[in-house]
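We now fix the convention by which a protein and its fold are recorded. Here is one such record, which you should read through line by line:

>
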Amino acid sequence: MHMNQPQRQPDGILSCARYAFRPNKLNYCGPDENKHIFEYLAAGEDDGGLAGILNKFETLYPYLKLIAIANRAEDFFNKKVSDAYWIGNELLENIKAPRFYEHLSDSLQLKEKLSRENLNLLTGKMPRGANPHHSFHVFNIWQRTGRAENPHTLYTMDECRVGWGRVQNVAPEIIKVLYEPVIYNNGRLAFGAPILKDIFYELPGEVKAGDWISFHWSSFCEILTEGAVRRLRHWTNMNLELANIK
């Protein structure tokens, strides 16, 4: 490890990689390194190479950098930094509106990627609770800014946001969960009534019926505490409401 690199705890970067795994496999975000990401996750350890892969994720890495710098965290893959982006925690409250807007317009180059109308709409949300949680980007920026520059549909928004569900049963390759889908209700985005959903059981972890889990693009990420479920619901719901501002 180079002397100028911060001491990195493996639980942070491995947790972050679990959420990045499936969209990378689908060629939505990051370099073509899915095989190596999986190998790191299967081994449960990082020799420093995983950071080099995640650094190249066009949307993820700038968000982690923003959150880390605002909270004076030297390690951009610190567990609390990763949790702030994917799950949600108090670190998000330290990013003020002007700094977040600069991140969106300049670091992510949304001035070039969004129409003037959509950029103005985004500007209006800055003082109304806009935050660098993954769900804000999903619900309020209506196209993916990784490899695929496609407008979001209801399906892709529901798949791209980090979801949570209560495990009903577990099979070798599929976890069946009860979760609340994102729906349109009278022209507004909202959570629907709980339904069953099949989740790919690709990554290591001892999951059992009754557990709460997170998932991304229908792929198992982590087992969640009830506190983490509350935080994920809170920040996701906040950004769902922001998405309904026209």
Summary: The longest helix spans residues 226-243.
